[in-house]
Structure formats: structure tokens, C-alpha cells
Write a structure and sequence with these properties.
With 450 residues, the chain is α/β, with parallel strands linked by helices. It is built from 22 helices and 8 strands. Strand 6, helix 10 and strand 7 form a beta-alpha-beta unit. Helix 1 packs across helix 2 and helix 12 packs parallel to helix 14. The structure holds adenosine-5'-diphosphate and magnesium ion (MG). Magnesium ion binds next to helix 7.
Length: 450
């Protein structure tokens, strides 16, 4: 086994790169290959989760290259003491010597474009923007943490970078630490591996401001969550500002410990709503102006930006990508950007934006959300726990698809169109009076639009 693994490791290092190799692969050991299954021992549960999620395909491929094809890989947790640490480490390619990281190295690089100046404010993001500005001004900590959440590509990372940059500019002596949850985890694992966990704790607990992006990422990673929780508490106790982002509200993050969720909910929670037409148009106009500053020859026919704002509704990242492609195409061809050219050049993006949401998808997501069976969506049960989610699904079907009431009725087990109408009205009414329903609708819409 050691011989096979030695070869596989050499190959893996080439594929995943030295850093990833040292962090994720080097601590592993191949324990057996039986039939079509290879067993790999990992020193911690965390490592086994991570590696099985990110590297099992690579490992499988490499085993095949080295003449040991398998269909399946199991990752078992074997404590380090039984691993024969030194001999195992001596066999494969040498592990790089430990490099002590500098403080400055700890924070992730900030994107120059992600400033407050470049952030276009509209209804869907004005609250998040205002909160971010307030935190960036420094001063006494009023809400801790600031928790920003919203769907992908709506500007969470942009706002986080803008806060970090502004704070650094205003308080050069402050140590502002910005990193993704993934990087937090990476550093944590690295510290465990290098047995420098005390330094790790020290480093994190002496920062002035901690910003962790995409925190949903550490859900389910027990030891990382634990460490994050302690770091978080230590900083809050010292009155240090914390800014967190996630793709959903704290309460909605699965596999996150309750005490962490409740801690995360203690400060101010603001969400970035899906973009609306006005915001999309302003973003397109602003990006066009910026581009035109360096490409004065650019000509765009009237109506093109409006067309894009109406048709590309997914998120700002897609919108930006579309515009960039259009600019590249236009300058390459030396032509004016017309509506025809836009449709031709962006055919694929426009088509995928056009994706029709089905009633079935809505029913499935709603059933999942309320933890009921999909069959109960269609079935006859009248108990509130089933009837209410069913009405929510009816409402979303009416709002988010172009199906008629009788058509929707058919998809809900042949119900009459008046039943659907009643359901839709009921939810409309509740939306105004019951904020749980309002939040559910918001979240579901976001999930369905993603
Ligand atoms: P998230 O982190 O929420 O997934 P990002 O912050 O990475 O999204 O934003 C995706 C892209 O869209 C970035 O290039 C960002 O600059 C841009 N963007 C998002 N919202 C805005 C906005 N309101 N104004 C200008 N650019 C934006
Ligand atoms: Mg992001």
C-alpha cells in the first residue's frame, strides 16, 4: 500500500499543487484496496470531509493512472497516534518546511475595483450599503456583528472589500483582517498540522476588525466551527468589530450549531435583495461610462442597456460578464453595439436567463423548505402544516411563472382555479401581517431565482 500511495502522492502533488498537497493530501494514508474500493485514513473528521468533497475525483484518477483503478474511495478517520506519523511522512515527496507567516499575509488581497465609489446603490441594497458605510466609518461599535447576506453575485464580497479598504484608509494603525471562511479553515487546519494552534489563536484574537466572507462554508465542519466560535466570542468581548457575510440568514444555515447561529444573530442582520430593473440599469450605465473613459470610440445604440437590464435578471456578476463580452466584441470588430449585435453576441447568456421556472420546481423547493412531502403538495390533506405550504407554492407559481390559474390548478392535483385563487389571496394577505411568511417568501423566491 505504501508503495502505491507513494506513487499516487507524487502524481497528486503535481495535479493539486504544492500548497494544497501539503495541507490536504500529505496527512492522508492509503490503508487498503479491496475489490473496487480504496480506503484512505485521515487524521481528523474535518480533513476527511474536506478531502472527500474536493479531492476524491483526483485521487481516483491518480490511482487509475498508477494501475489501481477503483470505483469508490472511503475516507476513514484514524487518530494521528496510530498513523505512524514520521515514517509515513518520510516516504512520499518531501513536505515543505514550515514557513511562519507574516501578519500581513493573513489578510486576503482586496480587489481594487470593490470600493464604495464603485458600488451602485438602489432599493434592493440600500440598507446593506448604509450599514456597511456605518461600520467602515469606525467609531464606537454599535452593532456586532454586522451580518450581510444575499444570493450569489449580489455584492456581498464587494461591500466587504469596500469596508476593509475604507477602514484601513481611516485607521492605518488598526489591523483589519478580511478573509473567506474557506481561508479561515485553511489556516486553522494548517495550524493544527504545524502544531502552531496557539499562534493561530493569538493572531486572530489580536486583530482590531475581523471580516469573514461566506461563513456558510464552515457549517458542518465541527472543529473549525468551534474555533470560529471562540475567536468570535473573544473579539466581541473585547469590543472589536466583526463583519460576516453568508448566502443566507443565520437561522437558515444548515449544520451550523445553534449557539453560533444565535451569536451571529445578535448584531445587525441585513440582506441584499435580488436586483430590480432600475438597479441593473444603473449598474450597466455606470460600467459603460467607466469603460468609455478608456475607449472613447465606443458607441452603443439606444435601448441596448435597457434591453440587457430587462433580460438578464440573474445577478450582477452575470450582468457584468455580458457587458464585458459585448465591449470586447465591439472593439474587436470596430463596430457600434446594436440590439442585433447584442442578441447575437450574447445568445447563450440570454437563453439561459430565459430559463422557465416550472411549477414542479416550485413545489419541490417549497416542500423541502417546510419539510413536507412533495406528494402532499398535490394530495388532499387539509391540515394547516401542509395546507399553508401548499398555498405558498400556489402563490409563487402565480407570481413566478406565466401559467394561468386553471393550469396551476391542474399541477396541484386537479384543483379548481378558484381554490388556487383563494390560496394566492390568502398568502398575499398573510404577507402583510405575518413576517415569518414574508421572510419565507423572500427566501424561497431567492432560491428559485438562483
Ligand atoms: P457576492 O459576493 O455577493 O457573490 P460580489 O460582491 O462578488 O457578489 O459581486 C459580483 C460582481 O458584481 C462584482 O464584480 C461586483 O463588483 C459586482 N456588483 C455587485 N453589486 C454591485 C453594485 N451594487 N454596484 C456595482 N457592482 C456590483
Ligand atoms: Mg462573495
Amino acid at each position: 500500500m505504501d508503495k502505491i500511495w507513494g506513487q499516487a502522492r507524487a502524481e497528486l502533488e503535481r495535479i493539486v499543487g504544492t500548497d494544497n498537497f501539503a495541507t490536504w493530501i500529505a496527512p492522508l494514508r492509503l490503508t487498503s484496496i479491496q475489490g473496487d474500493t480504496a480506503a484512505i485514513a485521515c487524521p481528523t473528521r474535518f480533513l476527511s470531509d474536506w478531502v472527500s468533497r474536493h479531492y476524491s475525483d483526483d485521487i481516483q484518477k491518480v490511482l487509475e493512472i498508477t494501475g489501481n483503478p477503483v470505483q469508490r474511495i472511503t475516507f476513514d478517520v484514524a487518530p494521528a497516534s496510530t498513523r505512524g506519523r514520521k515514517p509515513a511522512a518520510g516516504k512520499g515527496p518531501a513536505i515543505r518546511p514550515t514557513v511562519r507567516r507574516q501578519d500581513d499575509d493573513l489578510t486576503a488581497p482586496l480587489d481594487n475595483r470593490f470600493t464604495f465609489d464603485n458600488f451602485i446603490v438602489g432599493k434592493p441594497n440600500e440598507l446593506a450599503h448604509a450599514a456597511a458605510r456605518r461600520v467602515a466609518e469606525g467609531g464606537p461599535v454599535t452593532f456586532n456583528p454586522l451580518f450581510l447576506y444575499g444570493g450569489v453575485g449580489l455584492g456581498k464580497t464587494h461591500l466587504m472589500h469596500a469596508i476593509a479598504r475604507e477602514m484601513q484608509a481611516r485607521q492605518p494603525e488598526a489591523r483589519v483582517l478580511y478573509l473567506s471562511a474557506e481561508q479561515f479553515m485553511y489556516r486553522f487546519v494548517q495550524a493544527l498540522r504545524e502544531r502552531s494552534i496557539m499562534d493561530f489563536k493569538e493572531m486572530f484574537r489580536t486583530v482590531s476588525v475581523l471580516m469573514v466572507d461566506d461563513v456558510q462554508f464552515i457549517a458542518g465542519k465541527d472543529s473549525t466551527q468551534e474555533e470560529f466560535f471562540h475567536t468570535f466570542n473573544a473579539l466581541v468581548d473585547q469590543g472589536k468589530q466583526i463583519v460576516i457575510s453568508a448566502d443566507r440568514a443565520p437561522g437558515e444555515i444548515k449544520d451550523m450549531e445553534e449557539r453560533i447561529k444565535s451569536r451571529l444573530s445578535c448584531g445587525l442582520i441585513v440582506d441584499l435583495h435580488p436586483t430590480d430593473y432600475e438597479l441593473r440599469l444603473s449598474i450597466l450605465q455606470s460600467k459603460t461610462e467607466t469603460f468609455r473613459a478608456s475607449h472613447p470610440g465606443l458607441v452603443i445604440a439606444p435601448g441596448v442597456l435597457e434591453f440587457l437590464a430587462a433580460r438578464i435578471t440573474s445577478n450582477v456578476r452575470v450582468l457584468e460578464g455580458a457587458l464585458q463580452r459585448l465591449f470586447a466584441f465591439a472593439s474587436l470588430m470596430g463596430r457600434e453595439i446594436t440590439l442585433d449585435m447584442t442578441q447575437e453576441c450574447l445568445a447563450d447568456i440570454l437563453r439561459s436567463s430565459d430559463r422557465k421556472l416550472t411549477i414542479e420546481e416550485i413545489q419541490r423547493k417549497v416542500a423541502e423548505h417546510y419539510n413536507i412531502r412533495l406528494s402532499d403538495m398535490i394530495g388532499p390533506k387539509r391540515v394547516r402544516t401542509v395546507a399553508r405550504p401548499r398555498q405558498v407554492a400556489m402563490y409563487l407559481a402565480k407570481q413566478m411563472t406565466s401559467r394561468s390559474l386553471p393550469e396551476i390548478g391542474r399541477r396541484f392535483g386537479g384543483r379548481d382555479h378558484t381554490t388556487i385563487m383563494h390560496g394566492v389571496r390568502k398568502i398575499e394577505e398573510l404577507r402583510g401581517s405575518d413576517h415569518t411568511i414574508a421572510e419565507d417568501l423572500d427566501l424561497l423566491r431567492r432560491l428559485l431565482e438562483a
